[in-house]
Amino acid sequence: xxxxxxxxxxxxxxxxxRNNSRDxxxxxxxxxENHVRQPALRFIADFAAPLYEISPYLVADPRPSxxxxxxxxxxxxxxxxxxxxxxxxxxxxxxxxxxxxxxxxYLHLEPAxxxxxxxxxxxxxxxxxxxxxxxxxxxxxxxxxxxxxxxDDATKLSRPPRGFPCDHEFVEDLKLxxxxxxxxxxxxxxxxPRFMAxxxxxxxxxxxxxxxxxSAVGLKF
Length: 221
Hints:
This protein has about 220 residues and is of the alpha+beta class.
């Protein structure tokens, strides 16, 4: 079975990082299509079946736009950084009709930084309140999920959130503003013919996190 991605993916992204301009990108648009965009869309389409086995409520959407693959174009409207392109390839597999901030799975491919992830990144306060309330009311379930949390760069409050006990078993988790887990991947794994199985196994490993967070915010998993 042929690999979805090749080392050319990472070479293109590294070159894009050094030449992040519209002129350069347009001159190398065919490389982007051949080594980044088209392989990603094929991967997303083929991941639909393994994803259904993990959760029938999450979606792998291979549409070229507004699907599972993130746009390569950066939103620079409110940023002082005006570089026009992202220098990584990203995909999300979330609940149908929900945005990127809903619980699900995420795939990030970047030179020297590849990983699979699941969780909630910068959720809105009402969503975070629901999760914290679920942690307090369902500590036995959360105990198993807690063991999987490993977002070292997750933001955290300095004190327990208002209305929650300071002496709770999971008080440090209640302080978190981002909750999730990640599985590191190597470029060799990404370029392997077995990458579909590798990523699927990573999602299965992370699925207790996605399942708990989904139920906490009223979504099926």
